[in-house]
Design a protein that fits this description.
about 240 residues, mainly alpha, 8 helices, disordered N terminus
């Protein structure tokens, strides 16, 4: 993320975002049942790790995702103000915001559909192979390909990625006997999608109007975080 005032990267924001990602990854791979309660979500304590919404409090695990949301929200005005300063038309900025939202939304849905433990509660070899295939297809869709590559090659890779992903979604079947479903999505990335799209649009609409921004921010935050409050095992649910 580039700081509009100096033309250099906002390294403090980069460091905060990197720390949030690191701690999210760490909290997602901590084994169950072997560490003290403060190493897990406050509402999913050891030894059985059953979700109990009646338990008060929070731990560091509960804070890492809001920390990443904070870094994401702080980056929005830095990025958009720079685009506006360089004369980028509003319609192009809005199109790019919606395009990013679409890609993030697709990523949330596709990722959930190809997770081994979603494909099979006790993953077998084919479950892991499908997950690896899904990873390769996501690489073809989302990777930033070098500009030095031929245009036809870059377009071909994108076509292969999208075609393969859509075909895979159409063919996969799950333990309950059903196939593709919009409801089968990664809640954490859905929340990030909402934040990126609506946070950016709200900032564009309220830019320069401090009173409007002061009113919109807490309303937007409540709307964006509401899915987390009702999700069974919060954002790093491993089922």
């Amino acid at each position: 993320m580039t700081d509009d005032r100096s033309g250099t990267r906002a390294y403090a924001l980069d460091a905060l975002r990197g720390f949030a990602i690191l701690t999210m990854v760490l909290s997602g791979v901590i084994p169950y049942g072997v560490l003290p309660a403060w190493m897990y979500h406050a509402q999913v304590p050891p030894p059985d790790h059953k979700f109990n919404p009646g338990l008060p409090g929070f731990t560091w695990v509960d804070l890492v995702f809001p920390l990443f949301l904070l870094a994401l929200g702080a980056a929005i005005p830095l990025a958009l103000s720079r685009r506006l300063k360089h004369g980028t038309p509003y319609r192009k900025i809005i199109f790019e915001i919606l395009e990013r939202g679409f890609l993030l939304g697709f990523f949330a849905i596709f990722l959930r559909h190809v997770r081994p433990h979603v494909l099979n509660s006790n993953p077998i070899t084919s479950s892991w192979l499908i997950a690896l295939l899904g990873f390769l297809l996501m690489f073809a869709i989302f990777a930033r390909l070098p500009d030095s590559w031929k245009q036809w090659l870059r377009i071909s890779i994108r076509i292969v990625g999208w075609s393969g992903a859509l075909l895979l979604l159409a063919l996969l079947r799950y333990p309950e006997g059903k196939g593709f479903s919009f409801a089968r999505s990664d809640i954490i990335i859905i929340v990030l999608t909402n934040m990126a799209v609506f946070g950016s649009l709200i900032w564009l609409v309220t830019m320069g109007a401090l009173a409007l921004e002061f009113f919109a921010d807490p309303l937007d935050l409540q709307t964006l975080l509401s899915p987390i409050s009702v999700h069974r095992n919060s954002w790093d649910h491993r089922g």
